[in-house]
Amino acid sequence: MSRTPRSGQRRPDPTGLMRTSSPVLVGRGDQLGALRAAVPSQPAVVLVEGEAGVGKSRLVRELLDADLGPIAVLMGHCQPVGEPFPYGAVLEALRDCTERLARNHTRLSPVAGVLGAVLPELAGYLPAPPAPTGDPRAERHRVFRAMRELIGVLGPVLLVVEDLHWADDGSRQLLRFLMGDPPANLSIVVTYRREDLPDGVPLGSAYRPPTGITSAVLELVPLDVGEVRALTSAILDGEPVSAEFAAKLHERTAGIPFVVEETLRALRNPAGAVHADGATARRLLDNVDVPVLLRDAMAERLAALPEAATLLVRAAAVLGAPATAELLGSVAGIDSAALTHALSGHVLHEVDARRYGFRHALAQQAVYDTLSGPDRQRLHARAVDVLDQVEPRPLVQLAEHSERAGRTAEWLRYGEAAADRAAEVGDAGTATTLLQRLLHDPAVPSADVDRLAIKLGQIAHQGLDQLVPAETLERLLSDRRLSTAARGQVRLYRGVLLIRQAGGVEEARSELERAVADLNERPDLAARGAAVLGLSYLGSTPFAEVRPWLDHVDEVRVAFDDPELRMSLYANVVGSRMHTGDPSVLTGLEFASAATPGELRQLARAHCNLADALTTTGHLDLCADLLRNGLRFASECGAPFVASTAHATRTRLDWLTGNWDGLAERAGTLLDEYRDLFPVASELCLVLGSLATARGEWSEATSHLTETGAFAPEESIAPVAIAGCAALARTMLAQDEVTRACVDVDRGLAIVRGKGVWVWASELGPVAVTTFLAAGRETDAETLIGEIACGVEGRDAPMAFAALAHCRALLCEARGQVDDAVSLYREAADRYSALPAPYLAALVAEREAICLVPTDHEKASECLSALVDTFDALGATRDAARCRHLLRGIGGGKPSRRGRRGYGNELSPREQEVARLLAAGHTNRRIADVLFLSPRTVEQHAARVLRKLGVSSRAELQAEDLG
Q: In sequence order, what DSSP letters do the residues of 547-602 get, joined into one string?
């Protein structure tokens, strides 16, 4: 007689099979709600991060199972082992858009034709390919534009890219481009494991979504005990789970949902086990012995498969990347027909059309761990033999399998070839990683170690990855396989890499000095080391100790026949000497033409190094010309580090010349990309801090300026550190913190006096004099002016002479010598304007106007009124507000930027200023101080801002709300 189950009693599954995953999403309600809210609000960018097995793919699947209306889904997957194939994940996703493209392809511009070569499936709907530009950087940007345009004509689209941590550099760069300015019809969702990301950042550099779009970062963390209990119950169709079992299961699985699922599958009777008390639960789960990567759980799955299917699965685990049935069968040495059993047993899955792999990397690793050492080695050897027949050869995979097969000669051959190929396509990260792995292998012979170590140094110092290669080179110096002849070269490259790291300057100098001593039989390389030691701006070493290195390089460089070497040495000498204001530099430039990529790289360095020096000395028009050519040369020859320095110099030049529109965003983006390159990052932080000071955002300013090297001059780029001290002091003065300003000024002057290069006091001098006068240290101010005058005499440094006139004017004003002060302020303003440095000129003109107030009120008012417009146009909120305040104090009539018209529900310019400061977390009183308003006025502005933006409190106000 049949019996109906009581309510709440689980009906047995007639097949005897247990559910392998939860029918409901557990512990992710908030994240799923945020994802479902964000995706339809196009454009939208959502980043989903979490460790392996935590449920990122399941969260995305829940999203895709819902009704997305007209939004089409494009899916791309990144793979753990792959060749350098730029844009691979995005190309995979776009191959499925044929139908939509067919309806809208006529809207594409000719630039979209560049995609025909990489998306042959869509070529019939794409324009003819445009002619190549010959510029790799321009070509890449054109591909990016074409991708964005293609997506833009597809209608509402959701692009999902899974496992971004395995993405190739091209895909990361393309996604950063798309996510930085997504088309209006696009939502992007990317998933990644932060722990497996290159440098710990998802897109190769820190990413900030643009304002005005929907964005979210969803971090998935492991489940807690209660959620593990709920997940277990859901998997078992509502079976009650004891608290003790849930606690032990959580302990054994760390709350990772995938591991929970696999552990339950491994239990013989999970439905009975979940009722167990603490001791029994412990015994049951201990017997399962589930390691982190599910070794035993996957072993039990494998045991249920026919032998042929097990062999195929093991081959898949060894290959480590999705493969065709034929490839799997060849590696396993059997017919691929056994694949059906592996698929039906849910051990392997069809990853995409005709390629098969594991559902999760943990599953692959679990199977791999079940193999004995000899079996692994045998399968890796078979993988080498099979993959060696594939065209084009997958060199990275061949290198990987050769290494694990213990076939040292092939590991060396394929690994080095893969590194060379990666370097050729601009993937320095893959190249240096492979070379480092080769060098870590004790089986690699001594002769090869020399060659590989030198190659690692050469590739690394041209690229952007500095830290890890420098550590590998350090380890090699104690490796007996490294010859004495190669040791000096390794020290040379390590020293160059150390200079680019925060805190590495002093150690770099020591390493370079030893390198030069070791390279006495290689005068060409010794000269390269001496040229770096002759860089005037590194650390706190006095210029008197640096000059002999510079003089030596100047003497020997003409003796070399190699034009690339001569230009390399000149690139260091010309920048170093110009940084000190050497008057002979600009009258004797030696920019020879370049006949090879190597010569072009050095020519790019020479242009960019000189341009950087000119931002310090003040030849700003020439600086702009040099930067344009230098960046073009760097792009043509593929010199990313040279380009990084040029981009930083460009931001500094933009700051000085008043090109502030979008400057904070540009500098911030570059800082995200180059944060690990200290010389570049410190200059970008100087610009960002200076901009924040001009806006009156003291906390942000201080945060950036402390990263300029101002507090560690021995490890700094000295001119940047000195300017950082000046900007910090200016920030303190603006807040009436005179004592703290004195500390910053004294620190900066100590660097200048220690280095003995007074042209670097161009920004510090006027701030220091102002600070000393405010602190009652008039004698110190007078002494400083004398030091500056003596130190810049005979130097080619227009900015230093403008600063000197500025300093003298400040002292005259303090002494009541108003006529002399006005004359000197006018001289300084004219000199600054001639550079051109409009912001510095405006600051001086403000002081001149203040001096004119008692004697020529009308002229003073006109000047201050004009300065309000100047500062407003620059975006110097604090300075514009100060001039308005001065005008009000003398009865001037300059109106606020609020203008005459009503703004309705839009924010007025004044309200935008208040809103920005509110979003930065400032109080009404602080905003009143910054904008020279009364707290009551700020309160009224704040109320209107919240009302117009539709938020109930300032805590809800985000910078993105401001447009």
A: HHHHHHHHHHHTT---HHHHHHHHHHHHHHHHHTT-TTTTTS-------SHHHHHH
* Amino acid code (one letter) for 936: R
Q: How far apart are CA 703 and CA 871, in angstroms?
A: 23
C-alpha to C-alpha distance for 151 and 94, rounded to whole angstroms:
8
3-class SS of residue 162: strand
Half-sphere exposure of 285 (CA within 13 A, CB side): 26
What are the DSSP calls for 936-950, one per residue?
HHHHHHHHHHHHHHT
Residue recorded with tokens 């701006």:
537
**CA 32 – CA 154 distance, rounded (Å):** 26
Work out the pLDDT band at 301, boundaries 50, 70, 90.
confident
Of 50, 54, 35, give the one whose Cα is nearest residue 216: 35
pLDDT of residue 354: 84
What average pLDDT does this structure show over 62-81? Answer: 87
For the question of whether the overall pTM of this predicted structure is more than 0.85, the answer is: no
Pairwise pLDDT comparison (653 vs 435), residue with the higher score: 653
For residue 509, the cross-strand partners are none
* Whole-number Cα distances in Å, 813 to 199, 263, 386, 770: 52, 80, 83, 11
Smallest CA-to-CA distance from 613 within 784, 463, 757, 466 is with 757
Least confident of 287-296, 437-446, 821-830: 287-296
How far is C-alpha 768 from the geometric centre of its chain's CA atoms?
35
Which region, left, alpha or beta, applies to residue 27 given φ > 0 means left and ψ of -120 to 50 means alpha? left
**Coil, strand or helix: which one is 17?**
coil
Beta-bridge partner residues of 160 = 75, 189
- 178 closest CA partner among 209, 212, 204: 209
CB neighbour class for 932 (10 Å; exposed up to 12, middle 13-18, buried from 19): middle
pLDDT at 688: 96
Question: For residue 758, what are its two tokens?
Answer: 């007074």
Q: How far is CA 595 from CA 32, 179, 591, 620, 642, in A?
A: 58, 39, 13, 29, 19
The owner of tokens 């020096």 is 613
Here the tokens at position 247 are: 């606690």
Other C-beta atoms closer than 10 Å to the C-beta of 953 total 7
Dihedral, CA of residue 366, residue 368, residue 373 and residue 378, to nearest 10: 170
Torsion angle of C-alpha atoms 777, 779, 784, 790, degrees rounded to 10: 170
Cα–Cα dist 354/374, whole Å:
30
Q: What is the mean pLDDT of the chain?
A: 85
Token pair listed for 531: 């040229």
Q: What is the DSSP string of 721-751?
A: HHHHHHHHHHHHHHTT-HHHHHHHHHHHHHH
Angular region, 325: left φ>0, alpha ψ -120 to 50, beta rest? alpha
Q: What is the DSSP letter of 470?
A: H
pLDDT at 960: 44
Tokens 């402390």 found at? 706
Contacts made by residues 746-752, CB under 8 angstroms, sequence distance 24+: 747/710, 747/711, 747/713, 748/710, 748/721, 748/722, 748/724, 749/784, 750/713, 751/540, 751/713, 751/716, 751/718, 751/721, 751/722, 751/725, 752/722
Burial class (CB in 10 A: 0-12, 13-18, 19+), 11: exposed
C-alpha pair distances (Å), 339 with each of 132, 310, 329, 332, 349: 45, 9, 9, 11, 10
Token couple for 125: 């709907």
Q: pLDDT class for 957, splitting at 50, 70, 90? A: low
* Beta-strand relationship, 349-352 and 355-357: antiparallel
Q: What number of H helices and E strands is found in the chain?
A: 45, 7
In sequence order, what DSSP letters do the residues of 203-226 get, joined into one string?
A: TSS---PPTTSEEEEEE-----HH
- For the cut 60, the answer to whether the pLDDT of residue 709 exceeds it is yes
Under 8 Å between Cβ of 551 and 510: no
Indicate the DSSP class of residue 538.
B
